[in-house]
## 1
Amino acid sequence: MTPAKKSQEMKASTAAAKLDVYLPATPEDFQNRMITRDELSELQRTPPQWLVDLRRDGPHPRSVIAGRLRISISGLARGGITDPLTTEQIEQLQAEPPNWLVREREIAAQVRLEERLQESREADRKAEADRRAASGKS
């Protein structure tokens, strides 16, 4: 008989990152223990009220703040945002964007455009290489 397979465990910080929540805002019993992959899956499938509230109201980690503001995490730092923000604080920034946020959104839009152009160039190069390979085989 094979022993029962033990579920993999992760630090609470890793689980919080996977759940997109700010670890210090989670309940103490979540913060102070290892979380199994099964527990994480269950939290994702059927989140408890504390997780629903935290995702809705915050405070949010930098990755979530940056995503909601449509800028990079580096852009947050350049804008002086180093602490977690609540949903209300994020909405205030969106309603009346400061100059740094407008600038960072422009930078992020330019980066996304450059990434799309690079992907397009790479696709064109691949298509050309495929055409050459196909014509060489004929």
Note: The chain has a mean pLDDT of 91.
## 2
Amino acid sequence: MKLSDELPVDHRLATVYRIGAGLCGVILLVFGILGFTDQLGFFDTSGSQVAGLSTNGLLSLISVVVGLILIAGAVIGGNVASMVNMTVGVLFLLSGFVHIFILDKGANILDFGMSNVIFSFVMGLLILTFGMYGRVTGGLPHDNPYWRRRHPEQAAREDATRRGATAAGPPRVTGGGVGQTLR
């Protein structure tokens, strides 16, 4: 099964993906805009802080762009939101790992501090969790499209059983009087 398999249009998982993408996108957008309002230098590494995180103009720009991408994913919804969440979540985690090694080096052009690294890990895990919700657990309900895709034979048997019970309808009473039979 691919993680890009389609959800039914009205599946409740799509709501989780949209909320996750939208919420995290708004947080990043606000952080980026606050960085721009402080008129920080684009590559400034002097330790300017916004909302408790070190930032500069480049990090503000990246935050705004990624926030808008997450919000666009939330607007589109469905598997697009899920895939955007998973992709951005992985990128945040990778950013955290990269920046932990370059904290006090010249390569730290985004002016990351330890609080930024922790934020990157937390935000990455949060976004990734929203994107993977309902896709990768072992206890998925049988109406979940991802469970159905992983277990097509059992899903077909359950569908057949459900159709058979519906097609047969309720038992009918035939005959009259004392010797009635149910069919």
Note: The longest strand covers residues 49-50.
## 3
Amino acid sequence: MQCPRCRRPVLWTTTEAGKRLAVDTEPDVDGNTAVYRNGTGTWVSRRPTDELPVMAWEKLHKPHVATCPGPIPRHGRPAPVVLPPGVVDMSAYRRKARGRP
């Protein structure tokens, strides 16, 4: 999978709380997220603690939000999509044609 903002490859994991978290694909010794693949093949992530440190089957990764070079989303608005070269964004034209600013 890839990041929707910067298009770099990421691993989409499921946290202990059931939320989705994107992490960088390569393990990083400076990472703060333990990642492993469970028996069903799902990537699972958690925060290591003193009581439950990184296990042998886990690798440390950095959350992708910490390393993403893409644009930061504005309050409540989706991040602007970076279009490939040669592709034109028609949304402004469509708004104007409908009489919207």
Note: The two ends are 35 Å apart (CA to CA).
## 4
Amino acid sequence: MLLPAKAEVARQLRRYRAWERVMLASPHDRTVRATFEDSGYTLCVLMGKRCAREAADAAERYLRSTPAGYLREQDGRPQPGRVARRTPPPERRSTAPSP
């Protein structure tokens, strides 16, 4: 999987957050809202997410992690050093008498 350059992700995330603040200050301004939505769309495409909020969260996680760690997180693979359970947990039986 190709990953975007961290510098570009950081730039687009800053742009999205800046327009988010402007949009919250002027929610009825259509130009501001359109620019904010455009910045969210760009972040969605860059991070491969469908929702701008998910894309912003993914961008923040990506910027904090190593590329390999981010890919493992996205693939749902277990983290190194963690033990994955291969069998279901044992059933627990109640000691209370049945009615």
Note: The longest helix spans residues 6-25.
